[in-house]
Amino acid sequence: MKTELLAPAGSMEALKAAVSAGADAVYLGGAAFGARAYAKNLDEQEILSAIDYVHLRNRKLYLTVNTLLKEEELEEKLYPYLRPYYEQGLDAVIVQDMGVLKAVRSWFPDLDIHASTQMTVTGSAGARFLESLGATRVVPARELSFAEIQKIHRTTNLEIECFVHGALCYCYSGQCLFSSLIGGRSGNRGRCAQPCRLPYRVYEGQHGQGKPAVMNRENEKYVLSLKDLCTLDILPDILEAGVYSLKIEGRMKSPRYTAGVVSIYRKYTDRYLDHGREGYHVEPEDRKMLLDLFDRGGFTSGYYEAHNGRDMVALKEKPEFREGNQKLFDYLDRTYVTAQQKEPVSGHVILETGKPSVMTLSCGGVKAAVSGQAPEAAQKQPMTEEKVLKQLNKTGNTPFVFERLSAELKGDLFLPVQALNELRRS
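The chain above was modelled as a monomer; its predicted structure follows.
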């Protein structure tokens, strides 16, 4: 079974943390058209670098273009915005606007298009329609049951991507106008003010017929704030329903949060893929780790198994001060956030008097060779294999580290250290 673990990246630091922790792909927003306008987001040069960064490590990058566009934006701004990323090798765009879908399919015929959860695809008919328009993947509405997901899987050739962890909207995906109505900040333009996370009083009774009765308790005011989604216990069911991509929510979260959640879902996705349902079990300490990273009143498994219900709602306010798990935070920072992930390289150098020095390298199935200055016959102290390898092994701040490095010295010869450095740099 092929699966993809898809992580959010609100910054370059979060992207690197996600890749280090085991994400197969990341999704991020740029300077425009993303549904998280208040995330740090990346500028054009950072996204171009990010595409190279993930491709070097055999991962993928998807760009969110999942807001509703105005006519002039579609005609004048979207194409020049997307073109540099397309030319750099962007793997897919995530879209909400039908006009954007049509335009992207016309401009970039071979670029994958993912239909965002904001499209509110609630069944197989909608998924088939999007497939006919050129979409390659659908992110169905979060409200779907296993049976509804299975039907999309059976009746289309689309990849299916579903949320497995993170914040849930109270409203249907992509259909909320609450923020727009009360504050003029539209979620469909990437500017949701999250009014559903605020405390409210619930009243029973009509205006003018006496004083309405307050229905909710003093400590249960968060009546529109849903608990975060956590699906560790039902991960086998999700995968067996035909879901290809397991999506983690959280572009506004810290690199530490991203790394922690990705590492846990990597562990349990691999456990299921390696041992099947029979060998699948979840350790309590891993559930606790996820709660230590972020807790909005516990977790819910969302709509996969339930239509709705009171136990999905946070209701109570989080305590203002909770002792953070500093030991966990330090471990995540040290292991994933600050550690630079390097790609293993094999190398071999041949040095022979009077002939250009030659270095061959291989990494991830790609081979390269460079030639440099020719060694001279040694007048006094000939070069040693140990000295050559010590100099060539200094990969420094590059994204590479030598897994294997060997040297072949033919005869007593001498080559300046500067020439060895130049060979390595080349």
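The radius of gyration is 27 Å.
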